[in-house]
UniProtKB/TrEMBL annotation:
Keyword Cell membrane: yes
Membrane topology, record value: Multi-pass membrane protein
Highest classification ranks of the organism: Bacteria, Pseudomonadati, Bacteroidota, Flavobacteriia, Flavobacteriales
A GO cellular component annotation in the UniProt record: plasma membrane
GO BP term (any one): D-glucose transmembrane transport
Keywords: Cell membrane, Membrane, Transmembrane, Transmembrane helix
Top-level taxonomic group: Bacteria
Name listed for the protein in its UniProt record: MFS transporter
Major facilitator superfamily (MFS) profile domain: residues covered: 8-414
Pfam families: MFS_1 (PF07690)
One Gene Ontology molecular-function label: galactose transmembrane transporter activity
Record field: transmembrane: 9-33, 45-65, 77-94, 100-124, 136-159, 189-208, 238-257, 277-297, 306-322, 328-351, 363-380, 392-411
PROSITE patterns, alphabetized: MFS
Length: 414
């Protein structure tokens, strides 16, 4: 790779770090807002819904924006939108209004959708398609290191002495309880102001960076011949099946990372001081998976083989969590990070392979599929309310079965 390519990879790596930090804050926000706003499981998982539904709503508009202003300006704009979303948390905290919090998360998600729409195809096309999973794995390491840090840093602020506070709230009258919850709600103000400042600064740096524009509409001769009679992105089965695989994958990834703290607390009676670290374990497991991917793909195993292994491991760990107990069960959910690590890097190039001039629209489909992180955690929350948090994990088993199918047969369908 050239020096210029390496510099571009570093810049995109910084962006993936931002994705990870902001996205995985949800694992702390879910139990935090559940207490501060007195919510049930289903209501608390609207945090994930508000964050990820923006991908469905904004993916195609993001593609249009990127076509008009280009990748670099689009990434800078995405960071500005995220900063605005962070600032929405200030009035939301002051009035302790859950709807305001959700709106702030949706605005941040809108910025993330724009960033993801630019960064994922950018890193995919920045080098040979055969090694795309390796480059995306490197991005994943940046993403998940940030994701592992986020719950630790924000958990120390937002979930501090939470078990004692919950016990205290039981014995307070309504006025005293409201005052305590208002003070709890105010904990987010300073961190989110700092976040807004950092995001704004990064937006300026990206805008004035040397990040080059890349061409995504070109086709080599073989692809051009194959696509000669293609008139729509809907004529690529590998993309459509890959989009569903991405939807299900993001759903189980978010379930593994965002539910594990609440599951440890409410499902296995583990103290908050211990439970708050389980999302970080999930992200560390993903980092290990990404490191394995950077070493083994494509030298020792193919992208599709990595996808097959991931599906099988997800099924095994999911069943172990459902039938296990205590710390073992919770750790199995955290270890799903290992099963999930190489799914995203493998689906992306397999789904986009051969699209040529349809690549931008195909990328928008995959970005829209990130809405799986909005829908499936809500289903999990509903099942947790109806049955219990442990049995609700049955939802992940068919998801991993489909991922296994796509890695075995689905990606070959033309």
């Amino acid at each position: 790779m050239t020096k210029e390519t390496n510099k571009s990879i570093i810049i995109i790596g910084v962006l993936f770090f931002i994705f990870g930090f902001v996205t995985w804050l949800n694992s702390v926000l879910i139990p935090y807002l559940k207490i501060a706003n007195e919510l049930n499981n289903f209501q608390s998982y609207l945090v994930a819904f508000a964050s990820y539904i923006s991908y469905l709503v904004m993916a195609i508009p993001s593609a249009w924006v990127l076509k008009k202003i280009g990748f670099k300006k689009g990434m800078s704009l995405g960071l500005v939108v995220m900063a605005i979303g962070a600032l929405v948390f200030v009035p939301a905290a002051l009035v302790r209004n859950y709807t305001f919090f959700l709106f702030g998360l949706f605005v941040q998600g809108t910025g993330l959708a724009l960033l993801q729409s630019a960064a994922n195809p950018y890193i995919t096309i920045l080098g040979p398609i055969e090694s795309a999973a390796k480059r995306i794995s490197i991005m994943g390491i940046c993403n998940k290191i940030a994701g592992a840090l986020a719950p630790i840093v924000f958990g120390a602020i937002l979930l501090k002495n939470m078990d004692k506070l919950e016990t205290k709230l039981i014995n307070l009258n309504p006025v005293e309880k409201a005052a305590e919850l208002d003070a709890l709600s105010a904990r987010v103000i300073t961190p989110y102001i700092i976040m807004a400042v950092i995001l704004s600064g990064l937006a300026v740096l990206i805008y004035y960076s040397t990040l080059p524009e890349i061409e995504t509409d070109g086709e080599d001769e073989e692809v051009a011949v194959a696509n000669k009679n293609k008139t729509s992105v809907m004529q690529f089965p590998n993309l459509l099946l890959g989009t569903l695989a991405m939807f299900l994958y993001v759903g189980v990834e978010v379930i593994a990372g965002d539910t594990v703290i609440s599951y440890a607390r409410d499902g296995q009676d583990i103290a908050t001081g211990t439970a708050k670290f389980f999302t970080s374990y999930t992200l560390v497991a993903m980092i290990i998976g990404y490191l394995i991917g950077t070493v083994t793909i494509p030298r020792f195993i193919s992208q599709e083989k990595a996808l097959q292994i991931s599906g099988i491991l997800g099924i095994i760990l999911g069943l172990a969590a459902i039938f296990g107990d205590g710390y073992f069960s919770v750790l199995c959910i955290s270890l799903l990070g290992l099963a999930n690590a190489l799914v995203f890097p493998a689906i992306w190039p397999l789904a986009l392979k051969g699209l040529g001039r349809f690549t931008k629209m195909g990328s928008s489909f995959l970005i829209m599929a990130l809405a799986g992180g909005a829908i499936l955690p809500l289903v999990y929350g509903y099942l947790a309310d109806q049955f219990d948090p442990q049995q609700a994990y049955w939802i992940i088993i068919p998801c991993y079965l489909y991922i296994l199918f796509f890695g075995t047969k689905g990606y070959k369908m033309k």
